[in-house]
Amino acid sequence: MPSTPPATDPTVEHLRKTATPLRIAQFVAPQIWADDFRIDPWMLDAEGHIMSAFKDPEPRFLKINSVPQSGKSSLVEVWSPTWVLGHWPDTRIGIIAYSDILAQKSSELVRDIFQTWGEELFGLSVDSKADAKGSWRLAGHRGGIHAVGIGSSISGIPMDMIVIGDILRDFEEASSKTLKDKHWESYQGAIRARQAKLYLLGATRFADDDLSGRLDAQAAAPDYEGERWETLSYPALAEPDDDEEDVDENWRDRLGRVRGEPLRWRFSKPDEEKPENWHKSSLYTLKRSTESEIVWSALYQQNPTSAQGSMFPRELWGEYDPDEMPYMEAVCRSWDLATKDGRGDWTVGYKAGRGADGFYYVLDLYRKRKASIEVKTDVKMYAETDGVECHILIEQERSGSGHTVVDVYKSEMPLFQVHASIPQGSKHDRAYGYSMLQQAGKILLPKGADWVPDFIDEHRKMMADGRSPKHDDQIDTGSYAINHLRGSGSITMTLPEMAYHPASGQMVMVG
Q1: How many domains does the chain divide into?
Q2: Is the residue at 437 inside a domain?
Q3: Does residue 216 sit in the same domain as residue 358?
Q4: Which residue range forms the structural domain that includes residue 355?
Q5: Cα–Cα distance measured from residue 85 to residue 168, given in angstroms and rounded to the nearest whole number
Q6: Quick one: which of 472, 490, 345, 335 has its CA closest to 413?
């Protein structure tokens, strides 16, 4: 990649105007739009990564996902190319959007900036013999911009930096598998074949299998050895990612936001005197007015769900009042015991009952990270609390130790009905019956329980197309519990014959 900047006026004022993409924007934007260019914290974070990625001598792949109308396209498609060409004028840049017209708008704006302020800012001008709005270069240099719609031919056109903007217009296009397949073929073919030193993708998410989603899915394949994309995601309201460990009340996102705090963006004016009033942000108004959870999750949280939908739609969970439950014909608690002591996976104990009314009630949920010995103590304690009528299910791992673990619990809890939950088929296979009951409104959750929101969120991330959240222990234990209840009759209590032992003063098993 070219690395020799042009001769420029090395004054402090000049450096202030040209040092970064957003400083250029601060100088140029008011003269274009007669308005100040607002720089939000997320833009500063993204800008730093863009600059670092461009200067890296190794090839880099960077994705930036943010809410609509946040300034993402301007930063990625206008100010960053302007900064690059201003300091490295031999850089050949490709801009790709959903249509030739849209891509050429960004190219035209960068060209006009150089035609008007190029000499003042960088000592550069546009070559009058190559100045079309969709394809132009700088005078005396090989650098410039070639802008096309996704799928248009770029064969034979060398590119050092490729900027991919929004390539889906709306949810209607996002629902077209044919169109998304064409985008993927274009990227894997002509776009990736350019062998650019920097690939920069800036787009709002519409679907889980859009270009951004497919790049992530490709990288997740066990045998994949290709490029690795770095993803910068700036959701409207801060929330932890699926793979973030040990999330607690002190959690902060990459911008320092607490859970639920809105993004500072062009339509949200923070209360400078009372920072705690961030909850009055217009993003909260927008969230309340967005009827579709799918739209909000995709466009504003940058977390689209599968086109095929969740196996456990958020809106189809039922609800019950714990003070007004029917008689339980059968009750069980299903355990998934974490294999790591206090780290990584969660230990989950999912208690459910089948009511006399034909509905299934999720009665309680244990979900903690603890050492094995502490977990064993808790399993025994909960068994005492749940009572002997509550069947205990413990997942039997496929490894040899799985049998040993279940046998230990059986031997140490002789008064209780302990069963091994033996995995059959895939997690999705096991969850199928559970999912069908939930979608029929037959599974009810307790009103007001503090664990319910996270419980619902984990379940909604299990998709019908086969994808699961990183942590799916609540789903797995729920599958075992509900399937056990579906196949059980009314409650039976199998108690061993007991007798009093004078020496110990305790009741012991006979025989």
Answers
A1: 2
A2: yes
A3: no
A4: 314-487
A5: 27
A6: 335
